[in-house]
Amino acid sequence: MKLNTKLGDKLALSKNYAHKIWLVGDGLTEEEQLKAPKGTLFIPFSQFPPKRRRKDCFYHTTPAMMSPTSFENMDSCENWLPRRAMSAWRVAGILHALEGWNVHECGHTILDIEKIWEASLQHGFRPLMIPS
């Protein structure tokens, strides 16, 4: 996993399985999930969610936002997201079109995150809340 140099000192790659919050990508294996302690929260940063292998752990959705209320006939974009939720990738595409941004965010190239966050809120997208 590569990290932005500004963010690299904020995260550490764990050398054990004792932590209760895991940021996981596509490479998470069933064997690794089974090593997690009971009550672990798996938070994916990938496009697809991990397979739920544990009933005694919690699984957050993939990165997503709730669509604006002005969107009509909106169900969900992916079958693992709640109604009216859109994956972060789809939201990004819509924002690029609405804002007229003609740059491509690819791999580790990302525009100003604050600018993107503000634009998403201005266009009516809202954070996806985690059910308690």
UniProtKB/TrEMBL annotation:
Give the bilayer topology. Multi-pass membrane protein
Record's Gene Ontology CC terms?
Answer: membrane
One Pfam match, given by its short name, reads CER1-like_C
Name all Very-long-chain aldehyde decarbonylase CER1-like C-terminal domain ranges: 3-127
What InterPro entries does the record point to?
CER1-like_C
List locations, semicolon-separated: Membrane
> Which protein is depicted?
Very-long-chain aldehyde decarbonylase CER1-like C-terminal domain-containing protein
